[in-house]
Design brief:
globular; 78% helix; mainly alpha
Length: 103
Amino acid sequence: MFKHIKDDWKKLRQSEPGHRFQDRYERRHSNGSNWKKFWGPVMIGIGLLVVGFGILLLVIPGPGWVTITLGLALIAGESLILAKILDVLELVIRKLLGKQRMG
């Protein structure tokens, strides 16, 4: 299981900015197995918990925004709309920070 997570992270980092999350969504949904039908709602639930935890971390010292971003990335693997939003936000943030390629 950890190898799968590591491979998924590596592919996410290697994708082009502006397409990372949509590419991840497509990879996750390219095989319509019943197993993925089970894990989709589970990943959304885990993502929501991580976002909620990140919001708590905003109130106390800690990596709140990083945690929220991780939770949103988990949900984006199951939501094409959120994947598109995160891809656009990545490009906006890169432009504001003046970075061409992260990773």
